[in-house]
Amino acid sequence: MALLMRCVQLRCMGAVDEAVRLLSAAPPAWFRFPPLLTERAQLFADQGRFEESLEDCRALIAQSNAGAPRQLRDQLAARALDVIDAGIAEFPSDVDRLLRRIRICLLAECHEQVVDTCRRVLDVFPDHPEALNNLGYALVALQRYAPAIDCYRAMLASAPDDADTWLNLGNVLRHERQLDCALDAYRRALALRPAFAEAHMEHALCLLSDGQFAAGWAEFEWRWSTRQLRPYYFKDATPPWLGDFDLSGKTIVLWDEQGLGDTLQFVRFVPRVADRAARVVLRVPTSLKSLLQMLDPRVLVIDALETLPAHDCHCPLMSVPHALGLDRPADFLCAPYLKPSPNEVGDWSRRLGVRRRLRVGVAWAGRQSGMINPTRDVPLACLARLWSVDADFFALQKDIPESDCADHAELGAVLNDCGKFDDFVDTAAVVAQLDLVIAVDSVIAHLAGALGTPCWLMLRASGEWRWDNPDGVSSWYPGVRVFRQRVPGEWDAVVGEVVAALRRVADEDAASVRSGSQSPAA
């Protein structure tokens, strides 16, 4: 705090260089403190080091997706562009200035401006590799996959031995669900760079999307060598278990990785490990601990804050199917495999009241912290037609996206607000009492699937490997039905299909209630 106050004081005095010098001597861990990182971002901008300033803003947004870090980023990006554009106005053909403009716009997520500026460079230098690469990146961010493919193919025409470009081409082909072509692109990348961990991981996801599970699980082990995931590998003195030795008489730790939805999806395999080992310890996020304590009485469930008991080996949860040799869709279908707490169900039953008509839970967005995924979420305004259906709707969002707050406030009693759930044991108690959940690709979809509550999944066009069955049903959850975008970014048609299907179910439910029979399954 003293360092922060001193830097603020120096900046106000105009002694920017001295403030930056003080910060450069600070340990990297100190910059996990958002106010200090914010101060450094502002100081870098004052020095004209706009790229470094915006990198700090990116780190702030990763820590918290609240409005303030994004507002700071946008303000600093505007300052940077004012400076750069003044230079471009004087020297309009200066490629270095145009390239710097591209980098600033990328850091500020101004992808339309990236596209426009890249094309200015390419008008002069049609094969400029940095401009082509950044153009492809921006087009993918804008979900314009076909021109992005053309962009990467143009790069490969002049540099056919560039493994990074083959990887980028594979990724965008996978977005377009051209899986055979994507697999070929990944193999070309790996032929050029056999230890290319990122290419192995994307190749794995493509294999899984294509239903090639045995090869996909094996390739997926490369994830721990990628820059993104390497820092999160389990730091432990015991050996990893990948099915390569007998677990009889041994205690194994199965540990969570990546998202909450991944944990819920893969805990289905934990009882199978318990069949082999003397003891299983399952480490999960704190918010899932209470719910998962009811998974299997043989399993000790702990969170990351608790001390691990003595153990002989460990395995990340998403490696368990590989370790067990599970490679057929029939191996995955075991839902429901979670159950809600009877006490919480009773409590929420009283709070929800008597069922009058079809009960539908809605989760239109994923988590709103860290680096969110806007192509996954459905703007709440797009769901306006949904509320006309004769049903009771319940919001299953833990956090309302900032862009949806006004629309959410206007809905009032149309969308019942369950309040902020304490943890997933509460959420599960509500979901278990619903007739249907309508969700985007988020932890709520996995929770509904694991509990056996019917779920309709609103999915972006590019999809995700675990939902890629062409017939619209899930290999992982028998009760999940997929409604996929036909055009990237266009949710209207998806919502229209959902509304039409929901209206039919609601009408059948109303008819069954009038006749006194049970309500139909969604």
From TrEMBL:
A UniProt-annotated Pfam family: TPR_16
PROSITE patterns: TPR, TPR_REGION
Keywords: TPR repeat
Ranges: TPR repeats: 129-162, 163-196
Name the UniProt record assigns to this protein: Tetratricopeptide repeat-containing protein
Species this protein is from: Propionivibrio dicarboxylicus
Native organism taxonomy: Bacteria, Pseudomonadati, Pseudomonadota, Betaproteobacteria, Rhodocyclales
